[in-house]
Specification:
This protein has 399 residues and is of the alpha/beta class. It has two domains: 5-254, Aspartate Aminotransferase, domain 2, CATH 3.40.640.10; 257-395, Aspartate Aminotransferase, domain 1 (Alpha-Beta Complex). The chain is built from 15 helices and twelve strands. The chain has a seven-stranded mixed β-sheet with strand order 1-7-6-5-4-2-3, with helices on both faces. The chain has a five-stranded mixed β-sheet with strand order 8-9-12-11-10, with helices on one face. The protein starts with a helix and ends with a helix.
């Protein structure tokens, strides 16, 4: 794979106003104009390099957006105040009342709740399908379908989307393919595989320190301009703007993303291989036992591995809770939602990050209440972590 997103990020050169090695932070909500006509031109989108109001754009947000566009290989990007602040305007921009979306059935609970419960208020309906079946996906497309929506690596079941196959379907039916790449930054580059729009929750791996909430939409200049349009742009009018101070913080953290992703992947692979040998049925795309292992290999950037997310089922919520509480007491990680932190995070998604999905639908998609989702941290000695985790599993009777 010749495209290396980390090199693209590294090659960006930003200087601060006074020669600082980090760009200056634009700590302003509004911007002055020397001439009244320039303000009018900026409102109409015809004054390149001019800033109007920070809900529309700011230098700090544009710096971060450029870095994220370079990472994903898109023309440009628009950052937002959260991952949901990226997902919802994108879908609202692409769809009107009466339109239809085909979505993966295994997605983040907030995305599912928006599509299932909120979007219908605006006349937008969604069919939830098994994203691993191109046949099911195509069968769900109708004359009103406008968008295919999926996660490159699904939350929480770690199903892998065939992005090239989905792109062919999207082009065949004149649809837009929107891919949430939150679980697999650097490892997978959806735009290079045919996605029209790539979304991230910056809160997770990209920022990496669990101190900031943010999101981004990466796409064509035309689409990002549409999102920012002062008359009918969903990002402009719904207002999920990212604060400039947070943008600057995320941009600095991006400089170490390639190092962190390699370590997350290395540690997750080590734990997965060892626990699988112990008889635990691990869900991790780096294992040959994963049903889409070869598909992932056909898409990924080998340098960054198979990512830092894994999952396994301990049989019941009682066992899951017992194990997670014990692991936290032994300082092996935190019982917490989210992912991408330096410390391992774990939760039972059936009653946590996927709780918006009704129990019967969870069962249908294969999400049991005993499933534990892990975001594997940056442990220096992962062998020691494995041994301690194994002890915990033995104590609660999982092993």
């Amino acid at each position: 794979m010749s495209f290396n997103p980390a090199d693209n990020i590294q090659d960006l050169q930003y200087f601060g106003e006074f020669g600082g090695v980090n760009p200056s932070i634009s700590d302003s909500s509004t911007y002055t104009f020397l001439h009244a006509k320039t303000m009018m031109d900026t409102f109409e989108g015809n004054a390149e390099g001019c800033y109007l109001y920070s809900r529309h754009s700011s230098p700090s947000n544009l710096f971060l957006g450029e870095a994220l566009a370079a990472m994903e290989g898109t023309e440009t990007a628009n950052v937002s105040a959260s991952g949901m602040g990226a997902i919802t305007p994108t879908l609202m921009q692409l769809c009107n009342s009466g339109d239809h979306i085909v979505s993966s059935r295994t997605i983040y609970g907030g995305s599912y709740a928006f599509l299932k419960n909120f979007a219908p208020k605006f006349g937008i309906t969604t069919s939830f399908v098994n994203i691993t079946s191109l046949e099911q996906i195509e069968a769900s497309i109708n004359k009103n379908t406008k968008v295919l929506f999926c996660e490159a690596v699904s939350n929480p079941l770690l199903e892998i989307a065939d992005i090239k196959g989905l792109s062919k379907l999207a082009k065949k039916h004149n649809l837009k393919l929107v891919v949430d790449n939150t679980f697999s930054p650097l490892s997978i580059a959806p735009a290079k595989l045919g996605a029209d729009v790539v979304i991230h929750s910056l809160t997770k791996f990209i920022n990496g320190s669990s101190d900031t909430v943010g999101g981004v939409v990466c796409g064509s200049q035309e689409f990002i301009n549409d999102l920012r349009n002062v008359n009918d742009g969903a990002s402009m009018l719904l207002g999920p703007v990212m604060d400039s101070l947070r943008s600057a913080s995320v941009l600095k953290n991006m400089r170490t993303l390639h190092i962190r992703i390699k370590k997350h992947s290395e540690n997750a692979m080590c734990l997965s291989e060892n626990l699988e040998k112990d008889g635990i049925k691990i869900i991790y795309p780096g294992l040959k036992s994963h049903p889409q292992h070869e598909l992932y290999k056909s898409m990924y950037n080998k340098e960054y591995g198979f990512g830092g997310m894994l999952a396994f089922d301990v049989g019941s919520l009682v066992k899951a809770d017992e194990l997670m509480e014990l692991m936290q007491n032994r300082n092996l990680g935190y019982l917490a939602v989210s992912l991408g932190f330096y410390k391992t995070l774990f939760n039972a998604p059936g009653t946590g990050t996927s709780s918006e999905i009704p129990a019967d639908e969870q069962k249908e998609m294969g999400l049991s209440d005993g499933l534990i989702r892990f975001s594997i941290g940056l442990d220096n000695n992962i062998e020691r972590t494995y041994q301690e985790m194994k002890k915990c599993m033995q104590e609660v009777g999982v092993l």
